[in-house]
Protein: GreA/GreB family elongation factor
Organism: Pseudomonas veronii
Amino acid sequence: MNKHAVLQLILEKLSVDLDIAQRAAQTAYETATHEENIAENKYDTLGLEASYLAAGQAKRVEEIKQSLALCQNLQLQLRAYDEQRGIEVGALVGLEDENGRQQWLFLAPDAAGLKVDVVGQPVTVITPRSPLGHSLLGKFEGDEVEILVAGARQHFTVTEAR
């Protein structure tokens, strides 16, 4: 699995998400400002509700723009896994849990939770702000990582780092 290709898929997905969010924000704005949605009495809240939706959509657009910009900057700095430095932002990491389940993660500066499919293999984006992302920083292949999630300890082994 090539981490440059994974990052490219992440950028493409963020671009598509941005386009969808911008269209939704524009639709919500048009609904909020349409003359038919002007309140006729204090119980007529359609315009108010639409304005809340428009504000939320606009915020989502800005969040996606920020994620896209940070990941585009990462693309310019992406380097091969360094066995001396260990896992850092930009690493593609294979993990195995205590039950033998494998998963692939891409440690990015933003866009946590985004998932892309690489030849039938799902890759999930995590950030150093997450407990798992923070625990992975500086680790090497073969290292074990332990995190506490909702009071339960989870153990993982780093099977690959790229």
Notes: The CA atoms of residues 6 and 118 lie 7 Å apart.
